[in-house]
Amino acid sequence: MRQFSTVLNQLLHLIPRQAFDRLVKEYGGDRYNKGFSTYNLFVAHLFSQIRGKDSLRDIEVGLNQHQSKWSHLGIQKMAKSTLSDANNRVDAQIFEKLFYEFLSKCTDFSSKKKFKFKNPLYALDATVIDLCLSMFDWAKFRKTKGAIKLHCLMDIKGAIPTFMVMTDGKQHEATVAQDVPFPLLPDSIITFDRGYMDFGVFGAYQHNRIFFVTRAKSTLAYTVVGQQDLPHRKGLLFDHSIQLTNHYQRLDYPDNLRLVGFKDPETGKVYEFLTNNFRLSAATIANIYKARWEIELFFKWIKQNLKVKSFLGTSKNAVMSQIWIAMIYFLLLSYLKYQTNYRHSLLNLSRILQETLFDRRSLIDLLAFKPPDLAILKSQNSQISLF
Question: Which residues, in sequence order, are bridge partners of residue 270?
Fold first, then answer.
């Protein structure tokens, strides 16, 4: 019978190790490692994400229970003090760059949600991660509250994040849109809420042949200069060509815009969508903005299922390292799901990995497990732990 390595080791083999080693060398991650390398720290953090560990002590105890299975993981020792030291010593940029290295591997295997157009489709949004100001004094947000803000560009068709920026909690979305060069190719479509409304940014999108879809503010000043043909589709109210009348907004965006009115048949709420795309139908414009909800679901999922709300260290570097490794784990789950055509949810996949992390089973065979089989896995692991 073939002897498999542990599930954890099989997961680690999916990470581009050559790129990892290059980044460690580039940023001097192992310059003062004292027997605990950057790779050891990555393994410990990944273990924490998969098993949901809340502290360095939990990681130390949890990994030490499986010390006999360390030989293939490159771990020599695991102690709370060395973990704490490495959290502050190892540059978080190593894990940030590793995220993008792994992302390039995941792109071809991601989900491909179908729309009535071939353009790449992205959503841009941000979420606040609350922190205790007394412990994270570098993350001042309000008088008695700390926070950081995660800005994310998400590939909606692929269902994976493609670019992320972390700022202090005070940073406004529109400012980030102005300052950060989000990687968008010509003919891409990007959708976002009204927090990112900035006509200077819209002018840059137009210049670079990038389409945007957002909701118009109620205070938008414009004049109607034309009408698009409106098909008899439920909910569509109007489809105007407009020109801005505010002097400064007009300087930033002198071209015509398109304003699509839509009434939700279920709630009766009226929405007005603003876009520079005059090719797609009004119904498709409305559906593009509706697809923006995918990034809201992404933020909800990572906050509920990954360790991005409680942290293993209080320094800015430790927090950033943990968030980037959490995002790498999300990519790892997505890669497994879409490369193997796994039919169940990412949550179910993460639960299977949690229960079998140190089992010597084929990772591919585990993906054949169905949600009801989780009870069997838990029972087997409970019996094994008694001996």
Answer: 263
